[in-house]
Design a protein that fits this description.
With about 325 residues, this protein is an alpha/beta fold. The chain is built from 13 helices and 9 strands.
Length: about 325
């Protein structure tokens, strides 16, 4: 198949290229358009704008190249800024605006499948109950999740234009990890690498992650199988505690874990003090580090007719940490 991937130079895009290049012809859309191994050609967003209404010979050539795309995978977006330094408008310009642009292109194209990477943060900033499923009424908190749910809503506002003739998948992955990623897991790894003790061992939380290998497997399944359109959460099968994650990091480093199980009330008091005098450990950060966030992958597994993901959560995380 001919597959068009936006954000093709990013972490997920680069891994998808490796997973798909042997069986498919790949094209990209991104801010920069350098040559990428396995990608036939990468177009700029401006070139995508003119593809539907070409006026010059050059624009006509671009249109011809994009005429016979079979699948569009939309990865491009603005990641969640954990330091809260980004302007609110930039999330909507990128996460919502680019989704509108590429989805409008999809509706006018011959492509039959559209896969949009949203986020579990579009559904909920925290999980009420034991597990987050697709049945939850979305209540995003903050511009990242709000801009993602706005993109989802735009796609469904056009449902009458695609329901009978195309297939549209909205994926909501939880934290994606793998060799080459950058994010909170890297920050935690660097703390562990320095041999610093983990003082929050008294909190036994549960979280799910998404291995990039499992993610690529699911994308491949959506491309090849007859899967109903809809929203699908994406996660590994098993949930792990932060204590277990730190233990895996130490295993990758061949270090002994230093996990201190300090009284939870005492740590909460320290965090409350941190909020008052602006210390690194405050109540908000304590909540994020110790909360439960378990995401169900039952719906996507049922749709792909599989009983389990190919990579266990523990094995995927070890692979990630060893790459660090």
């Amino acid at each position: 198949m001919k597959i068009l991937i936006t954000g093709i130079h990013g972490f997920v895009g680069s891994n998808l290229v490796e997973a798909l290049l042997k069986e498919h012809v790949l094209y990209g859309v991104d801010i920069a358009t350098p040559i990428k191994k396995g990608v036939k050609e990468t177009f700029s967003w401006k070139e995508l704008d003119v593809a539907n209404q070409p006026h010059t010979f050059q624009e006509l050539e671009i249109t011809k190249k994009l005429q016979h795309i079979d699948v569009i995978i939309h990865l491009a977006g603005k990641a969640h800024d954990t330091k809260n330094r980004s302007e609110v408008a930039s999330y909507f310009q990128i996460n919502t605006g680019l989704t509108k642009k590429i989805f409008d292109f999809f509706l006018q194209s011959s492509a039959r499948k559209f896969i949009f990477f949203s986020s579990v943060k579009a559904a909920a900033d925290f999980v009420v109950g034991d597990v987050l499923t697709e049945e939850v009424i979305p209540t995003p908190v903050g511009p990242y999740g709000e801009s993602k749910i706005a993109a989802e809503e735009y796609i469904f506002s056009k449902e009458t234009l695609w329901r009978d003739s195309k297939e549209v998948y909205i994926l909501r992955p939880c934290m994606i990890h793998g060799p080459g990623n950058k994010g909170n897991l890297n920050l935690l790894y660097n703390v562990v690498k320095k041999g610093l003790p983990w003082p929050l061992g008294g909190f036994e939380n549960r979280r799910t992650f998404t291995s990039i290998d499992n993610l690529c497997y699911v994308i491949n399944g959506l491309i090849h199988k007859d899967v109903p359109s809809g929203v699908y959460h994406m996660a590994d099968d098993e949930a792990l505690s932060t204590n277990e994650v730190i233990t895996l990091m130490c295993e990758a480093l061949s270090k002994k874990p230093h996990i201190w199980k300090i009284n939870r009330r005492l740590m909460t008091g320290c965090a409350r003090l941190g909020s008052a005098v602006h210390l690194p450990l405050n109540l908000e950060r304590l909540q994020k580090l110790t909360e439960n966030y378990v995401v169900s992958n039952a719906k996507i597994k049922k749709a792909l007719e599989i009983e389990q993901m190919p990579v266990r959560a523990r094995d995927g995380l070890l692979k990630t940490f060893r790459s660090f």
